[in-house]
Design goal:
Blueprint: E1 2-6, H1 12-24, E2 29-33, H2 38-45, E3 48-49, H3 68-75, H4 81-94, H5 105-117, H6 122-143
Parallel strand pairs: 1-2, 1-3
Length: about 140
């Protein structure tokens, strides 16, 4: 399946592809486009759009104070407690005003901003940051055994 979002990924738009690959669609392919082209390109490519809070027509999006990562957890009924806790960390890192949702969020935000500052292409940001999410997931699992 193809998935599409805005280019210049940072927190939620890296976390969501990680979640999709690990728990929803291991064969997922991700496309990154300008926000203004997102709906047209999603139709043209037959791709599922996600994480564009300014575009109400997109179903997989921020919901109230929650981030898109949490919307995917909800819509795909992911019941893994470590994934749900990771959702709070992603929210704290991604959503202004939600920093108190999880103490780890400030660090995750800094890491994501650092990868963005390196000027890496979006696909490379995913490849380099997926291990960060694998490590956070393992950390959460080890704390809650």
């Amino acid at each position: 399946m193809k998935w599409i979002t805005r280019k210049d990924v940072k927190v939620d738009r890296v976390a969501c592809p990680w979640l999709i690959k690990r728990f929803v669609d291991p064969q997922a392919e991700f496309l990154f486009v300008e926000e203004k082209d997102l709906l047209d390109e999603s139709k043209r490519q037959g791709a599922t759009p996600f994480d564009a809070p300014k575009i109400e027509a997109i179903k997989l999006n921020h919901r109230g104070p929650r981030c898109t990562f949490e919307a995917i957890i909800e819509d795909f009924a992911i019941s893994d407690p470590a994934v749900q806790r990771l959702g709070l960390i992603v929210r704290a890192a991604d959503v202004k005003g939600q920093e108190d949702a999880a103490a780890e969020g400030v660090g995750l935000r800094s890491i994501a901003q650092g990868f963005a500052a390196m000027g890496l292409p979006d696909q490379e940001r995913l490849a380099r940051q997926f291990p960060v999410y694998d490590a956070l997931y393992a950390y959460i699992q080890s704390k809650h055994r």
